[in-house]
Design brief:
This protein is mainly α. The protein is built from 13 helices and six strands. It has a three-stranded antiparallel beta sheet with strand order 1-2-3, with helices on one face. The protein has a three-stranded antiparallel beta sheet with strand order 4-5-6, with no helix packed on it. Mean pLDDT is 83; it is low at 323-331 and 333-346.
Amino acid sequence: MSKRIPGLYKRGTQGIWHIDKCIKGYGRLHESTGTSELEEAERYLIRRLEEMRKVTVFGIRPERTFRQAATRFLLDYQHKRSIARYAQSLKILDPYIGDLPLRQVHQGMLESFIRHRRKQGMRANTINRDLAVVRRILTLAARLWRDESGLTWLETAPLLQLLDCDDARKPYPLSWDEQARLFARLPDHLREMAFFKVNTGTREQEVVGLRWEWEVPIPELQTSVFVVPSDGVKNGEDRLVVMNGEARAVINRQRGRNPEYVFTYSKGQPVDRINTKAWRRARKEAGLPQVRVHDLKHTFGRRLRAKGVSHETRQVLLGHKNGQITTHYSAAEIIDRGSGESELDG
């Protein structure tokens, strides 16, 4: 029976072999082999030792697959509320580029993925979201992530071109009747988020990720606002969310359910999206299969315009740009329709 290569030990209930070995000129190598089979673990260790030798002797960058980079990305950004969407994109991409070395991931290697998604009927915006995740990972690998020798994971990030969005669907603002039909068919937790969204113009991720710690009381107006930090906002700026009477009522109904997140399921678990099977079923039953979650934001914008709210104030309220805080508060009084539903009817 051959002697086991030094530096391997079993760990965990599944008996996965791990490496713990000091390498001259490199330092300590400490990582999982990902297998419970000794022969596979030894082959993995031999390959890693050869990679380390090339790094220390020749300065050659170790080969890493896109799947390894994707795994690191998900671990590094697991605290983000959008992590579920990133994970979904990477799951779809994995059969196409998961096994490829990072240096081989480029526009040409993504063409089969793009064609497949097109055949599935996916629009350019949807495909672009997947491509944007790839671009982000390659950029991090080339600029930020470094190994123990100080080498980046990737020498240079390739240029990835997103698709033209000529097939983008036109906005579909809802009438009051359409809103009533749709919302009546939504489960309670989605209905509450939809009411808040259509009355504040917030984006989907801003709603599902809304936290109580972002609420700021305004005693002189007997109300409060939410300030969404820039890392959760599309334009990269802090987002001030002003609430009318409807939105405030929604928020008050959520109090006490979860100490961290505003919107949750009935038992208090956080929600990660509005665009679920329940949403799609409700819009179909309401005879509105073309309506997207983002159309609630368009509905809010159209009603502001119909009410005569200025373009500058609309841009601020919709989160397209920041403005003076007093502008927000005066706009809050304008758009607050209280108990009169027709006040913002376009």
